[in-house]
Amino acid sequence: MHTTTIPHTKESLKEAWNEFKTNNPKKRIREAAAALNVSEAELLATTVGETSVLLEGDWTEFIQDCKRLGKVMSLTRSEGCVLENQGNFQKIEIHGSPAFQVGTVIGPIEQRIFFSPWTFGFAVEQESHRGILKSFQFFDKAGDAIMKIYMKEKSNLEVYEELTAKYKAPDQEKKVEAVPYPTPEYSKEIDKEAFTQDWENMKDTHDFHGMLSKYKIHRLEAIKLIGEKWAYPIDRLSARKILAVASNSKLPIMIFAGNRGNIQIFQGKVRTIRQMDNWLNVLDPDFNMHLNEDTIDSAWVVHKNTTDGLVTAVELFDKEGEIVAQFFGLRKPGIPQRDAWRELAASL
After folding, report:
1. Of 51, 54, 76, 125, whose CB neighbour count within 10 A is largest?
2. Which helix or strand (DSSP H or E) is residue 198 part of?
3. Domain identity same for 205 and 154
4. End-to-end CA distance of the chain
5. Which residues make beta-bridge pairs with 128?
6. CA distance 108 to 206
7. Digit-coded pLDDT (tens) for 231-263
8. Residues 200 and 335 reside in one and the same domain
């Protein structure tokens, strides 16, 4: 994740990026940004007025407007995992007060959106081997990507143009400057007995975040602290077995991956699993996952109590201790998790 920016002008940055593209034609903008030591949003901002439009406005309203785009591809990523879901933005609900609004998107595209980090937005048209790719792209204040929405064959391009015009920032020359996030502070000491009791008394998996905040403890530290009854480490490449078994036995699963501003969720059966060097991929018609195994430092089986019984997750973490991806057995509220998923997790 990007942390520092170097002094530059739009022109000097554009020049450096063009040179990088000439020397590295297959590298993506994210890799270019890392190599040039700037954020992806700052790099993209050099194209405003040419191949992109700077957007601003009420992002909660924008997401509601996305329902009219028809079938699109929504891309959300963590540091090491990219999820690409195709479908419509179907059922969208916005909760909470303006500064801390959260959106739930339910349907073919499933998301939990945290709007407070949403800082920069762009409508982008880029050349690709398949012609012009049109997308909406959103970034946090550090300039890291939150979500990208790509138009597909069945998307409504008239609505794309309409939304680009509706949310176009009046000042297209506005400087896009990334501001790194401060390092979060955590408690030095935890009351382990009280913490364990709270973990055991969870009624819902969503209680977990509240518990982390209450004790000011990092997620990975919490998992390490709780002890083997509730969480234990497994082989860091366990996602290979999860996907192989899920594909072969047609076991429906859930995959979560995301960042500060959005968690994207896949729910269903995976079919086509392909290993390409260090990348573990799901390549299905309406869902792709690209998991960079080089980023995975540890993997854990984690149990949480709910009113529907025990819920088991497999959680992957990178070297910084940040979550890369999570895997669950597919279940709906009110229904216990499947035995087949429990057995798969226990076999890791």
Report:
1. 76
2. helix 192-200
3. no
4. 30
5. 131
6. 22
7. 999 999 999 999 999 999 999 999 999 999 999
8. yes
